[in-house]
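Exam revision sheet. Question 4 asks you to relate a sequence to its structure. Input first:
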Amino acid sequence: MTDNGITLIDAWELPEDRMDESVARWRERVGLIASAPGFRDARLHRRLRPESRLGLVNVAHWDSVEARDTALARPDFTASAARAADYATVHGGWYEVVAASGTAAESAGEEPGITFINAFELPAEEVDAFLPRWLDRAELMSGAPGFQDFRLHRAVAPDTRFQLVNVAHWTSPEAWRTARDDPRFQRRLPAPSGSVTASPALFRVAAAF
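Answer key, structure tokens:
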């Protein structure tokens, strides 16, 4: 770990009709540990479109893995966790930032207009070869109107479901779509690969601590 702490990302697959309930549960559970030593902040992102694979994405920052483990051992949190939902599949892991651009809106005390999250499934041994190609496209997107920032997170453990997760902020969905549809960006998209699966979607912050 470094002085920058570590990032926990939980990506949820769940039905649209259970979203409100899940957001309420998240508020309850994170509220129990938000004052714990080592907790920095957490934001729960909710998808804009129901057809997106990932319905909720939690991004939380801690001083260390140990600090979170200690917080989760509290009896009140353990009792809340016992009521965990059986309708959601949660893919969680610890991450470190491996690339960044722009000043994060949250760090400036502002809520971003829109959050774009793309979670990548690929073998851990292929991440190093994938990164330069991704960064080439990210550099182009970073210069587009409406771009605010991105943070690319790499999983600490090789068995984490999503080895890379990009979290980017834009002023609006329209700004992001305009940049995405730019022919220069489209020409840099890689050929389909059987070893890489991307789950991109637009989100808004549904709850935060």
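Marking note for examiners. The beta strands are 6-13, 39-47, 56-62, 89-102, 114-121, 147-155, 164-170, 197-208.
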